[in-house]
User: Which sequence fits this backbone?
């Protein structure tokens, strides 16, 4: 067996004895000894068996290069995405969480009390509670949008306040309009419906304007992941389509408000709310067709 060790030393003579090379050499030594024993058992002379075993090894440098090459990353794609999310994770501030919980409890309490008082025929107290609930919803919406999250940059304070105001107007408008139910038959029922509908429409229009003029606040790493996965909806691929949807939505709700007023004065206020139901149905059908329908191929840029 002395020839096997000598031939192996010669094969590694010009190779720096790094830890990887030393480990490979010892592995080959064990295999060569076993291979020489097999050849000798088949009748091959010891010297010839050693030469044949070493010749079967091939290029030692290539074997060392293969061992030094980094192992391919066999992790699934979602594992890399999860690591990226963990790296960029932003935890909400404790004060923000406490404020949201308190505001949420106030809104829930206002809604429950509103329902109880309205069932007893009260009018003014539910109207005040509608304002309280609207302010709570607006504060939650505006404060949430002003916070940095894992995927989104915070909105500027002014724009976040505008979003909160829109939420407050819509919530207050709905609550104020429903005050007409316990006041039905009184002279003030029409006024509650008109005021509530006006607040609702103003809030919806403000929501539409904010949505149309909203810039992309998503962080770069989320846009990279979305680009790799491909946009799932038409609005993400075509901002102009999203802007048109916002304009159409504003037109629908303003028209619904005007129709409800006309129906209320001409036919009866008990039927005026049907205009908002029709407006909602039209908006949802339009959303389904524009956002999730077959995308329109974008026009190629004209060459001058």
Assistant:
């Amino acid at each position: 067996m002395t020839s096997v060790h000598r031939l192996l030393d010669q094969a590694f003579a010009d190779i720096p004895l790094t830890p990887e090379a030393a480990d490979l050499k010892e592995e080959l030594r064990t295999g060569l000894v076993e291979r020489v024993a097999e050849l000798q058992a088949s009748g091959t002379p010891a010297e010839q068996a050693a030469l044949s075993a070493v010749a079967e090894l091939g290029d030692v440098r290539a074997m060392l290069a293969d061992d030094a090459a980094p192992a391919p990353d066999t992790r699934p794609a979602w594992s890399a995405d999860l690591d990226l999310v963990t790296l960029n994770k932003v935890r909400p501030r404790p004060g923000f969480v406490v404020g949201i919980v308190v505001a949420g409890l106030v809104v829930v309490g206002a809604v429950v009390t509103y329902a109880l008082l309205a069932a007893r025929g009260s009018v003014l107290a539910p109207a005040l509670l509608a304002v309280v609930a609207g302010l709570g919803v607006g504060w939650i919406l505006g404060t949430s949008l002003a916070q940095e999250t894992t995927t989104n940059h915070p909105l500027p304070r002014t724009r976040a306040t505008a979003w909160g105001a829109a939420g407050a107007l819509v919530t207050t408008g709905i609550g104020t309009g429903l005050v007409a139910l316990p006041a039905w038959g009184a002279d003030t029922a029409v006024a509650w419906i008109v005021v509530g509908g006006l607040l609702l429409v103003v809030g919806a229009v403000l929501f539409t304007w904010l949505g149309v003029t909203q810039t992309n606040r998503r962080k770069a790493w989320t846009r990279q992941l979305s680009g790799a996965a491909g946009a799932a909806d038409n609005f993400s691929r075509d901002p102009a389509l999203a802007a048109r949807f916002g304009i159409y939505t504003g037109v629908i709700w303003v028209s619904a408000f005007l129709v409800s007023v006309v129906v209320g004065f001409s036919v009866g206020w008990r039927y005026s709310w049907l205009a908002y139901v029709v407006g909602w149905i039209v908006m949802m059908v339009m959303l389904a067709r524009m956002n999730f329908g077959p995308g329109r191929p974008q026009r190629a840029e004209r060459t001058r």
Observations:
- The chain has two domains: 2-68, 80-230.
- The CA atoms of residues 96 and 144 lie 8 Å apart.
